[in-house]
Design a protein that fits this description.
The chain has 9 helices and 6 strands, in the order βααβαββαβαβαααα. By secondary structure, it is α/β, with parallel strands linked by helices.
């Protein structure tokens, strides 16, 4: 991260922190490690972001929009002009769960040999921060978003509101949800909602509740 000019590190439920092994491996970049924000959930870590990219190699059913590393870096930087963005990595052994990945708006895949596509976490992070660095000279050419992008918090409140109404109306049966939330997340991830659009949708839902 320091080599490529990034310094905002968020850790979700680390096994141990502070950690002597991490201290040893972070030689020369201790200020990034010491300033790391420790969160109890992915939701907490993504609070306030306007775009989150799940870095994953695992094929998934009902997948969000997928970019390769180079395209994904440009997409992330385009949104970074308007507010905080995030690259989301899973742990070393299992990567991101489907539920974790679905919290993001886009998926990013690092092209590799399909017969041996596994990268360790450090390598995946290095590839992505390198691609961000390489995309920086082009950032002025990115088209600005037409409106203020909805934040992670805005979208989560919309999901909860929609789910509540779907249950109370009898549309959603919690015993047979049929991946309702996953489908809704994929739908709105494609839409890349603006804050005003979220407010409009929630206004409609509130009117229907009455």
């Amino acid at each position: 991260m320091k080599t490529m000019g990034l310094d905002k590190l968020y850790l979700v439920n680390p096994r141990s922190f502070p950690d002597k092994e991490a201290e040893r491996r972070a030689a020369g970049a201790w200020e990034i490690l010491h300033a790391a924000v420790v969160c109890t959930s992915l939701d907490e870590a993504l609070c306030g972001t306007s775009l989150a990219a799940a870095v994953t190699a695992r094929p998934r059913d009902l997948s969000h929009e997928v970019f390769d590393a180079r395209q994904g870096a440009r997409e992330v930087l385009g949104y970074a002009r308007g507010g905080p963005v995030a690259l989301v990595f899973g742990n070393e052994t299992a990567g991101l769960t489907t539920a974790e990945a679905s919290k993001c708006q886009i998926f990013v895949n690092i092209p590799a040999n399909p017969e041996y596509s596994s990268l360790n976490l450090a390598s995946a992070v290095q590839v992505m921060v390198y691609e961000l660095r390489m995309a920086l000279p082009d950032v002025s050419s990115f088209s600005p978003q037409p409106g203020l992008a909805a934040t992670f918090d805005d979208i989560e409140l919309l999901y909860r509101h929609l789910e509540r109404l779907a249950i109370s109306s009898g549309f959603l049966n919690l015993k047979e949800p049929k991946r309702f939330e996953q489908r809704m997340r994929r739908l709105f991830a494609r839409a890349r909602l603006e804050k005003e659009e979220v407010n409009m949708l929630r206004g409609i839902l509130s009117a229907l509740e009455k």
